[in-house]
Amino acid sequence: MANRTPAAQRPNGSTQGKICQFKLVLLGESAVGKSSLVLRFVKGQFHEYQESTIGAAFLTQTVCLDDTTVKFEIWDTAGQERYHSLAPMYYRGAQAAIVVYDITNQDTFGRAKTWVKELQRQANPNIVIALAGNKHDLMNKRMVEYEEAQAYAEENGLLFMETSAKTAMNVNDIFLAIAKKLPKNEQTAGPGGSGQGRRLVEGDTGAKTAGNCCK
Amino acid sequence: MSPSLLQDPEMHFGAVTFFAKEHKGETCGSNGLPLTPNSIIIYGRAQILKTIKHPNLCQYLDIIRGKHERTVIVSQYCGEQLSNFLNKGLFTILDIKRIAYQIFSGLNEIHLKKITHRCLSPENILLQENNSIKLFNYGLFHMTDNGKLVSFPIIQLIYTAPEVYLDGVSGNLSNPKVDIWSVGIILAELVLDKPLWQSLKLGQRIRKILSLVQGNTSVFERIAREHNCYEKYQDLSSDLKVIIEDCLNILPQHRPTVAEILKNPIFDKFKDVPDTNRSKICDKFEKFTIEELYHWWQLAGGEVLLELKKQGLIRSSPPILSVPKMVLIDGSILGQERNPSSLYDPRVIPMPLESLYQRFSHINTYSYYPLIHFKSEILASVEPSPYDAEKLPLVIREKDPEYQFHRIILFRRLLHGYPYTKQEIFKEAKRDIPPLLRGSIWASLLNLKSNYEQEYTVIDKETPTPTDRQIEVDIPRCHQYNELLSSGEGHKKLKRILKAWIYKNSQYVYWQGLDSLTAPFLYLNFNDEAKAFACLSSFIPKYLHNFFLKDNSAIIQEYLAKFSQLIAFYDPVLANHLQTINFIPELFAIPWFLTMFSHVFPLHKILHLWDKLLLGDSSYPLHVGLSILAQLRDTLLTSGFNECILLFSDLPEVDMEQCVNHSLESYASTPKSITARSHQNEEYEEITLSDIQSISVQQLNKEKCPRICVNDVIALIRNSPNEVIIVDIRNPLQFNRCSVKGSLNIPFSSVKFGDINIENIGTYSTVLKNQEKKIVVIVGTEDTNLELFPKYLLQCNVAKVCVLHGGFNTFLPISPTILVQNQM
Ligand SMILES: Nc1nc2c(ncn2[C@@H]2O[C@H](COP(=O)(O)OP(=O)(O)O)[C@@H](O)[C@H]2O)c(=O)[nH]1
Ligand SMILES: [Mg+2]
């Protein structure tokens, strides 16, 4: 599926456009719709019977922002608490994170807060965190108020949007908002850097190598 | 002649079809997921009917979903409708009593299972050539959830009890007493030898039944008078008369239950000799069953839907005709012609068996009785296989009616003899497993005990636990493309099995993935939850020992480390590439092994994979992983990290047969100690001694090549000296004093490890270069570095490198015979 990676690495005609690569991780309780958000963003699809994620899944997608091409390397993680021990392997060195909860389930919002705390403590200090209240289409079953989540996000300096992987509402927007907020002042290598994955591996001091793009 | 064995008058089947109710308007349930189509709910509910086996009931065989919520029910269908025999003076009172007895016996069986027939009528009662009775279509009411899932009423005019009409025809009155009324009317017809109220229109007939509610004289008597048969009524012996009158009580609570009726002494003479003496352990043996006949029929080209089309039961009308005239914003539809075929069509289409008889006409009678035990091995080996298909691909063999005939006949005999036939089952399963009997064959390969049902029954599967939420969100994501697993019944069953397993194994916890692991067992044993549970319970300790511990990292780490070593052993080029791009198994192989691939492949592939897995031990999955990599090898070798990980996030098509064959090969040719783990379950694996498993994970991760134990090395030297190269890396002095005959001495200290070039190791480089067949065993001592040299060979792309665990000295006590002095 390597060719799924969009061809947009060469931004429309302009040769001097910057190309940035960012590692983004999705976190949140199981079944809140992390995989569905990624699937919507990357392939524009929605599967009612999305399979559960074991371990983690990896996908990439590119977006264009003015003269910059931003390539997201997305790690979609398993939601179950038990897989928690694997999570640091994925968020270590990530420049962005989307913490997802399900607006119809209060517990998932609580879990999201825990993730935010953990990221603030353990992840890359400059990490851009977005909070996504997913399943907006099930509004009539809402259990988490918009205002409540908004206030929490503001307090903690998070981007915040309510999304729906099903209707596609705010899905691209949240990724774009993250892309905008990421520092892009220093341009680096460009596409096709195999070996990027190195930063993932324990022992390789992730945080250090990770930033070598777009910092 | 042999076909006579197939041509049993009761071995016939037919099909009926109807439409499930379509969901109107709303398409999403409260959980945001789409509503399960009613045809799927019916599909799930009807499965249990297939397990009902009784001489007075037609056996259910299959449920097929067609287009637009069409449901087709395939069931045994033999003999002739009882309605054809009325009005002909054919039955004596004794006959009628026998018929009554058999109807009640059949009813008793379903009532015990909490199933109400609700559409009993002389059309649904089949009289066999041998004068026995079989009830038909008794599951319609049950499978449609008491009629709720269909848009037509489930009634049989005069045979339907008055309270059903009073409840409203769309009601779903399921009191089994309604069936008693129906039998009452049917017996009255038989006694009077007349179809009742035949001249009346349909609506009038219903009104007639309702009119019976008024008045307090005997219903039977009134019916008799109305049909000018009062004498017959009067002459009827009182024993039968009482039963009919009891059945026709207006108030359901006054009607007797089937069990009460069956106690009536007038039926005593029909009761079989009680078979209390028959052994409980052993079911009655049948040469073959009607399920199997149906299976062969399908393989031989039989298609139920096609037959229904031929007979005009399924008609396709141009789609334009079904377009509604108006659709409102809320989704409701106006002006759509009601399709007459959406009503209930009582026609039953018998399925023609001639072509199957033809296809099997040359099969000998003794093929039905295959020889299983041979006194002499020689005789056994010359016995030709009854139908030679061995060389055909598995998928073809599975579709070949004749091959499946022989396989099924053989396996059902073997299964009948289980557990005494364990070894034979194992031996035959190595060839292949007939899909129809897979559930039972797997159960025997997993050594299921006969008391599995009791064990399951006593487990608490209901009390809520904190894990429930996780299970509930995972089940609707688990193999939902499959009709059984996506049906409501499927969800309920899966949840119960998972809860039972967690309850029973308190040392373990629910890890996501356990759902996928359970799915194949549930799919194969959908009507036997206890068996599915028992299979899971014996599968996990054997293949996933301790994988479901709350902290399983040590187990998984070790497993993955072994996997890396195995890749290095068989494919150094790939291993080196993956190492360079830092593509470690942690990133992709956890769902593979934690679920034994059940999370990554669709069910039909898992079944073929596990057919072989069940014949191996817990190291077999490592070889499966290896062969998946082998299939993707070319792509992997030319890809960087991102491309590789993308490839695994959405695994491309894997050719399962090739994967299975490849993995069986490497499994068979790999010495056991190469894949031995400290966390494997000792109960299931004979450990090739020594402390080879006691190596820490950190150490394992450092060692790029696997260790091998001395016994395996000696076995290699003795049994296949041409397939092993012993490389002794001790210094020449030690080597000269004592070494393995024929071993090569490449002193550790003589090699410059700086640049990667096989020539650096000296004269023997040509021996090691370009060879893939032979296992290269590195022999050192405790104080030679046992990591550097093998790693170096690996980097030089030398395949099959392993290290003798414990070093040279382990040879001394065990096998001095292969050692020599002064080899240089
Ligand atoms: N109605 C609705 N359902 C959603 C939405 N996003 C995900 N789902 C459903 O929620 C379930 C869990 O989604 P999934 O992406 O597997 O969640 P994950 O465990 O966080 O990755 C699936 O059945 C999805 O179809 C959404 O925006 N709206
Ligand atoms: Mg997921």
TrEMBL record, chain A:
Pfam families reported in the protein's UniProt record: Ras (PF00071)
GO molecular function: G protein activity; GTP binding
Recorded catalytic activity of this chain's protein: GTP + H2O = GDP + phosphate + H(+)
GO-annotated biological processes: protein transport
InterPro entries: P-loop_NTPase, Small_GTP-bd, Small_GTPase
Gene3D superfamilies xref list: P-loop containing nucleotide triphosphate hydrolases
Keywords, alphabetical: Endosome, GTP-binding, Hydrolase, Lipoprotein, Nucleotide-binding, Prenylation, Protein transport, Transport
CDD domains attached to this UniProt entry: Rab5_related
Main localisation: other
Enzyme Commission number(s): 3.6.5.2
Region (Disordered): 185-215
Entry GO CC: early endosome
Top-level taxon of origin: Eukaryota
Similarity annotation: Belongs to the small GTPase superfamily. Rab family.
Name the record gives this protein: small monomeric GTPase
Species annotation: Aquatica leii
TrEMBL record, chain B:
Pfam short name (any one): Pkinase
Location of the Rhodanese domain: 720-820
GO molecular function per UniProt: ATP binding; GTPase activator activity; protein kinase activity; small GTPase binding
Domain Rab-GAP TBC: 432-617
Protein kinase domain ranges (all copies): 1-267
SMART domains: RHOD (SM00450), TBC (SM00164)
Coiled-coil stretches noted in the UniProt entry, renumbered to this chain: none
Protein name: TBC domain-containing protein kinase-like protein
UniProt source species: Aquatica leii
Lineage, top ranks: Eukaryota, Metazoa, Ecdysozoa, Arthropoda, Hexapoda
